[in-house]
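Exercise 7b. Backbone tokens:
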């Protein structure tokens, strides 16, 4: 049995969503990630103050949120597109909406993890990452059409 392109992307999207859920556990809480990120930052920036290192750690964590949902949004767009080509607004909107819903669900999940806190700001960052992905896809598709004369 051969899986369609859409089915493959739906499966990969579900696996990536599971990865996001794993990253929302205690294992990847700020306290736990600081144990390896702060020493790495201290090694890279030996003259930085502890306060600066903590800010950098926070920026890394928020960038991870943005990146996780950028990837998920891209996968969801491709899953909806399947074997079709091009770009459709409805695919982009649905990808963003699904990411926003999953981000809210993920933050709800974190509210039950003692070492984590649920944050609407994190959901906003996640949804921003999903939206940026759709803008990038649109721009790349537009440039491709311009180059190919489509």
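Sequence design result:
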């Amino acid at each position: 049995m051969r899986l369609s392109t859409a089915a493959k992307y739906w499966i990969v999207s579900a696996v990536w969503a599971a990865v996001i859920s794993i990253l929302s556990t205690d294992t990847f809480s700020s306290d736990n990630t600081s144990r390896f990120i702060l020493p790495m930052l201290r090694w890279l920036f030996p003259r930085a103050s502890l306060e600066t290192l903590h800010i950098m750690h926070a920026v890394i964590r928020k960038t991870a949120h943005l990146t996780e949902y950028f990837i998920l949004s891209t996968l969801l767009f491709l899953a909806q597109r399947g074997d079709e080509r091009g770009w459709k607004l409805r695919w982009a909107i649905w990808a963003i909406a699904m990411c926003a819903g999953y981000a809210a669900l993920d933050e709800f999940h974190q509210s039950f993890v003692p070492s984590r806190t649920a944050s609407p700001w994190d959901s906003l960052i996640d949804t921003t990452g999903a939206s940026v992905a759709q803008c990038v896809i649109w721009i790349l598709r537009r440039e491709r059409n311009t180059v190919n004369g489509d």
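Instructor comment: The longest helix spans residues 50-81. The radius of gyration is 18 Å.
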